[in-house]
Amino acid sequence: MSVPADDLSPRIRAVSLGRPDYEVERRADGSIVLRARAELGAFPERMTDALVEWAAREPERTLFAARGADGGWQHISYREALQKARSIGEALLKRGLSAERPVVILSGNDLDHAMLALACMYAGIPYAPVSPAYSLISADFAKLKQVMALLTPGLVFASDGQQFHRAVMTAIPDGVEIVVSRHLPSGLSCTAFAELAETSATAAIDSANACVSGDTIAKFLFTSGSTGEPKAVINTGCGAPIRRWCGRRSRS
To answer: Mind listing the pLDDT tens digit for each residue in 113-161?
Structure first.
């Protein structure tokens, strides 16, 4: 079947484009720098500002959902998430956690992981999500031990106490608080995650949140360590300035 030549011609139409408003700097090394003249609009100072906003605008809307043990959906609304973030954040503040004593999360994604991460960001306390493989697959826990030595955590979380029992016993230094969601292991002192969530929030957590800025360390993300030891990458924006943490480490 032949196709008319007109149908093969390119479809061209006029498109309206905005007129860019920028200044051009041509440098001696040949580089060209473009700078927009328009000022940036207002933007949230903290990552958790959106949580606060939507807890007020749509308090019952679902923020997180996951299948429970019975197969049914478990939901956390914006209102509940903000309440839990403030309560857990209060509990973390009371423990004196900081960039020098951050939170380390050993287990994978679940609702408690999400709430602990939000609480850390709300309180301005860095956290580090560590690959579960370091705890569940490794035979000698070498990488997990390296992570512990680098971060010197003040609190370590694992969703299942029995599943992560061997890793905790082998790689977590003495004196570090262990928090688990379920299956508290016998013979090991642990804190139930529910205990953190039941802490009464006070003005202290909101004062801590007000101090969070774009320079605050939100979390440490680790490289895979495929070519050597895992390395921590600082993510900001979530309160201690980066230079303070880096300065401490560079002197050690």
So the answer is: 999 999 999 999 999 999 999 999 988 999 999 999 999 999 999 999 9
SS (HEC) of 88-134: HHHHHHHCCCCCCCCEEECCCCCHHHHHHHHHHHHHCCCEEECCCHH
Residue labelled with tokens 């202290």: 204
Q: Which two tokens stand for residue 18?
A: 């905005």
- CA–CA distance, 232 with 215 (Å, rounded to integer): 17
Give the start-to-end residue ranges of the domains of the chain. Answer: 49-251
Measured between alpha carbons, how far is residue 3 from residues 9, 11, 187 in Å? 11, 15, 80
Structure tokens at 15: 């498109």
Q: From residue 228, how far is each of 61, 146, 149, 222 by CA, in Å?
A: 44, 11, 15, 12
d(CA 183, CA 174): 20
Q: Which is the CATH superfamily of the domain at 49-251?
A: ANL, N-terminal domain (3.40.50.12780)
